[in-house]
Specification:
The chain is mainly beta. It folds into 2 domains: 24-55 and 153-218, Carboxypeptidase-like, regulatory domain (Immunoglobulin-like); 62-148, Immunoglobulin-like, CATH 2.60.40. The chain contains 1 helix and 17 strands. The chain has one helix at residues 9-23, and strands spanning 26-35, 49-54, 65-67, 69-71, 74-76, 79-83, 87-91, 98-102, 109-114, 119-123, 128-134, 141-147, 152-154, 160-166, 169-177, 180-189, 199-202. The strands form 5 sheets. A 5-stranded mixed β-sheet has the order 6-12-11-8-9, with no helix packed on it. A 4-stranded antiparallel β-sheet has the order 13-2-15-16, with no helix packed on it. The structure holds copper (II) ion (CU). Copper (II) ion binds next to loops.
Length: 226
């Protein structure tokens, strides 16, 4: 910004304020509500991913590394959100082998069997929500949600979420959960930030469907060795 001499003090102050407002980055926060089938309560709010896509020019972001361990025949955490191009590292903390794989188009990989204290990784080059499985343990399911924006977070177990340092402007707010259709809402973030960006997801139509192993076959009892 150019400040010319001769500006009256009040104009200068206003200009400085506007400049500051222009680069201000404030928090956007909200709460997720989940419509469940009768008699069921939500226990997996922390698997909710919230991310903001700018309405104008694409957001700039950096690739990073994220960890998803295998522990007790489960992925921990079960859901990870990363930026496009990021690497996810899978540390085997169990005293037996796992075989992590995905057959998702655009993100397929097979890390092979590996044991305790070994970490292998894979890079996610495409945006999307990709299921990750273990070829040995059919019950092991995870999701890597890959987004092309640095403005993302996951809700806490209390259903609340917060994305710090969001520039003001118009955004598409995406709320993803594996058990509900994704919700996309237009929001406008003022310089002071936005609280109460609340969203309700509908998980009533969710059905648990068995997935197949890395060969595209059903898991069999004899295939579970540990
Ligand atoms: Cu496994």
């Amino acid at each position: 910004m150019r400040v010319q001499t001769g500006l009256r003090f009040i104009s200068l102050a206003a200009a400085l304020f506007a400049a500051r407002a222009g680069i201000a980055q404030s928090a956007v926060s909200g709460r997720v509500a989940m419509q469940e089938k009768p008699g069921e309560t939500t226990k997996d709010f922390d698997a909710t991913v919230v991310y903001l896509v700018p309405k104008g020019a694409p957001a700039r972001f950096a690739e990073s590394k994220a960890q998803m361990a295998m522990n007790g025949r489960q992925f921990s955490p079960r859901v990870r959100v990363v930026t496009t191009g990021s690497t996810v590292e899978y540390a085997n903390q169990d005293p037996f082998t796992h075989n992590i794989f995905s057959t998702a188009p655009g993100a397929s990989f097979d890390l092979g069997e590996y044991g305790n204290h070994i970490t292998k990784s894979t890079q996610f080059k495409k945006a999307g929500a990709f299921p990750v499985y273990c070829n040995i343990h059919a019950q092991m399911t995870a999701y890597v949600v890959v987004v092309s924006t640095p403005y993302f977070t996951q809700a806490g177990a209390d259903a609340r979420w917060k994305i710090p340092s969001v520039p003001p402007g118009k955004w598409q707010m995406h709320v993803w959960h594996e058990r509900a259709p994704e919700v996309v809402q237009e929001i406008e973030v003022p310089a002071a930030g936005l609280a109460n960006a609340d969203v309700t997801l509908d998980a009533r139509g969710f059905k648990q469907v068995a997935h197949q192993n890395k060969m595209g076959k059903d898991y069999t009892a004899t295939g579970i060795r540990y």
